[in-house]
Amino acid sequence: MSYELSHLRELEAESIHIFREVASEFERPALMFSGGKDSIVMLRLAEKAFYPCKIPFPVLHVDTGHNFPEVIEFRDRRLAEVGARLIVGSVQERIDSGQLKEEPGANPSRNQLQTPVLLESIEEYEFDALFGGARRDEEKARAKERVYSFRDDFGQWDPKNQRPELWSLYNGRIRKGEHIRVFPISNWTELDIWQYIEAEKVEIPQIYYSHQREVVERDGMLIATGPFNTLGENEKAFTETVRYRTIGCMTVTGAVESDADTIDKVIAEVAGTRITERGATRADDRVSEAAMEDRKKEGYF
Amino acid sequence: MAEILRFATAGSVDDGKSTLIGRLLYDTKTIFQDQMDAVEKASENLGTEGPNLALLTDGLRAEREQGITIDVAYRYFATPKRKFIIADTPGHIQYTRNMVTGASTADLAIVLLDARNGVVEQSKRHAFLASLLRIPHLVLAVNKMDLVDFSEEQFNKVADEFREFATRLDIADLTFIPVSALMGDNVVDRSENTPWYDGPTLLTHLEQVHIASDRNMIDVRFPVQYVLRPQSEEYHDFRGFAGTVAGGVMKPGDEVMVLPSGFTSRINTIETMDGPVDEAFAPMAVTVTLEDEIDISRGDMLCRPNNSPDVTQDLDAMVCWMTADEKFAPRMKLAIKHTTRNARVMVKDIQYRLDINTLHRDESSEVLELNEIGRVTLRSTQPLFVDEYRRNRTTGSFILIDEHTNTTVGAGMILGVAE
After folding, report:
1. How far, in Å, are A245, B118, B242 from residue B299 at the CA level?
2. Per-window interface: B 343-382 vs A, CB < 8 A
3. Are strands B3-10 and B108-114 parallel, antiparallel or unpaired?
4. Annotated domain spans of chain A
5. I want to staple B52 with a disulfide (CB 3.0 to 4.6 A). Which of A24, B48, B63, B112 is the partner?
6. CA distance A6 to A193
């Protein structure tokens, strides 16, 4: 008998350990959930950590209002199955009430507007720990982030002043008003996530698989047409066989041309691809080379 | 399926560590086209010739501007044989704490040596820290072989020099590999420039090094992390003790002892959401149910009745001090986190400060400053269940936390019970 774990089992065990540690040491944790594959895997890991108990904290969705309808339908169904309480922080509501202002121009991104809504929800519910599905392989600034990422009263991340993190001993001590962002899947890669989804038969929204969709080509990406997307003068909608590698706002998340309509095909595609998921499909990360670093300092996920 | 190898890299500013990692990622086709494009663009801006592979890993803006790495960064790549997690740690003298941090979870460390300069002070320091943190496998990558005409003699000279130094350290497995990170020799692909070298390339070594036996499979240690008591009909009487196995192999039917109470019982089942399992070993995260109803809470530990850790309030330990805000000194009070147990400690004594360049023990030291390491004794407010760090890296380690700033200020490795 050899006592070895497969890489997925080892990653899973590490994540479960982190979920349990946070549930033990914090008073008001919440799980940030977007309906994307990473947060879906997080939800599964949280279920596993506390089985046969229910997940002992609520789920927080910062809703930009520019969602794929398939994702919202999936969110509600899945959370009902798990029996988790959903808290929604709505960007749309705050735009309607005048607290937030939509960016100028056609098809504005609401990416920046998520941060104030998130921070407001944290204050309102007095969350002291927020689970996020960020992975260190996603981006260079994230490669330096701790599993327990300390945030001050303003929700800010200070990359030069992070707490050392040793062994699996996480330091969750904070003062009132401060909080910790916790990233249980820090050590997973995009491929690990897909392999886990396959191994665990985790259900994910259908838009991750190849389908026919009406899109428009914008900044080299295929953006879905729909109620939030105003076509420019020279833009022409057409139907393409596509799938999504990431899920964000409908207005900034690009689809990739793909025939991968099964999990096996998706994994083969991911394993063979030469462009990172964010580089390929997220207009929000393209702004500058240090785009993510800047947003994180301000309190972004 | 593949297992995970976690390794740390350490090197001085100029010995090409970032380039080596860039090379590993590039030659294993882990680098994506858009990342490569960004590097090429940045290289042009900096006026370097050809893509500067070091830029692949230097993530934060301040680092790119200063051309140095300022914090631990984690990188990932995989081959069909293994998944790799790299803790990329900076080499400057002021960043010992980052090296200790990166090394704490590593199965293997790569220390870079410059083939021209041989074993410099910094390489000794890195090798010492790797041995202090009990990284089981150490690889000495003798880099910049292209600059010494791939000379076997020079390689042997550097290797011999290091071997002599290493006799003073406790390193189980030592491997020397001649490489050129810049040109790619012996990193992923075997070099034609070193016909005299018949060992593995760096990647082959990383894929093959045997790590399964590095974990302690003998002494059962199960720190209780969370107690699961579903108040549902279906699981009315269920009381599960959730945690991560820190050592040994646990099986249903095994007799266990609970610390600190000393009560004994037998393991009834080992539960997971995927169903009960026949055995659990490190680092599995499971839930244990016992045959008897015993009062157990977070911070308790399950072990075997005839094989228990030391139960003590007096720790003899090596401590690495990680803050410039204050000095580690006798009478100081700190919070301690050890496995799933939180307590407070008072510093009783600093036996000596270790000069990590000369390994000299300075017994006259009265304090430890930032990045200094010393042998100390601590007294805790509650008993802790400890093993020697060399026997178990989980039950033998702790962190110290400043109770006012809440930051992690020290890392400790237990040598035993203080007298």
Report:
1. 41, 47, 11
2. none
3. parallel
4. 7-192+290-298, 205-285
5. B48
6. 14
Secondary structure of chain A in HEC code, one letter for each residue: CCCCCCHHHHHHHHHHHHHHHHHHHCCCEEEECCCCHHHHHHHHHHHHHHCCCCCCCCEEEEECCCCCHHHHHHHHHHHHHHCCCEEEEEHHHHHHCCCCCCCCCCCCCCHHHHHHHHHHHHHHHCCCEEECCCCCCCCCCHHHCCCEEEECCCCCCCHHHCCCCECCECCCCCCCCCEEEECCCCCCCHHHHHHHHHHHCCCCCHHHCCEEEEEEEECCEEEECCCCCCCCCCCCCEEEEEEECCCCCCCCEEEEECCCCCHHHHHHHHHHCCCCHHHHHEHHHCCCCCHHHHHHHHCCC
> Is the Cβ of B100 closer than 8 Å to some Cβ of chain A?
yes
Domain locations along chain B: 3-214, 222-303, 310-417
Q: State which residue of chain B sits closest to A281, comparing Cα positions.
A: B34
**In angstroms, rounded to a whole number, what is the distance separating the alpha carbons of residues B12 and B155?**
18
CB A246 within 8 A of CB A278: yes
* Top-level class of domain B310-417: mainly beta
Closest listed residue to residue A50, CA positions, set A83, A3, A5: A83
CB contact under 8 A, A52 and B98: no
- Give strand pairing partners of B349: B377
Query: What residues does B8 pair with on adjacent strands?
Result: B87, B109
- The Cα B161–Cα A271 span in angstroms is 43
The class that CATH gives domain B3-214 is alpha beta
Provide the b/e sequence for A135-152 (b: ≥16 CB within 10 Å).
bbbbbbbbbbbbbbbbbe
> Is B230 within 8 Å of A144 when comparing Cβ atoms?
no
What ranges make up the beta strands (E) of B94-235?
A: 108-114, 137-143, 173-178, 222-223, 226-228
B338 vs B1: CA distance, rounded Å: 32
In angstroms, what separates the C-alpha of A139 from chain B's closest C-alpha? 8
What DSSP designation does B56 have? G
Cross-chain residue pair A52–B105, CB shorter than 8 Å: no
Are the beta carbons of B71 and A160 separated by less than 8 Å? yes
Alpha helices for B90-247 (secondary structure H): 96-103, 121-132, 152-166, 202-208
- Compare CB distances from B226 to A24, A140, A174 and report the shortest one's residue: A24
- CATH class entry, domain A7-192+290-298: alpha beta
Are B350 and B366 spatial neighbours (Cβ–Cβ below 8 Å)?
yes
* Fold matches, B3-214 and B222-303: no
Per-residue pLDDT of chain B (419 residues), as tens digits, is: 469 999 998 866 667 887 888 888 888 877 666 666 777 777 677 666 566 666 666 555 555 555 555 578 888 988 889 999 999 887 665 568 888 888 999 999 999 999 999 888 888 888 999 999 999 999 999 999 999 999 999 999 999 999 999 988 888 899 999 999 989 999 999 999 999 999 999 999 999 999 888 889 999 999 999 999 998 888 888 999 999 999 999 999 999 999 999 999 999 999 999 999 999 999 999 999 999 999 999 999 999 999 999 999 999 999 999 999 999 999 999 999 999 999 999 999 999 999 888 889 999 999 999 989 999 999 999 999 999 999 999 999 999 999 999 999 999 999 999 98
Check CB contact under 8 Å for A167 and B284: no
| Closest residue by Cα to residue A207 from A243, A258, A161 | A243
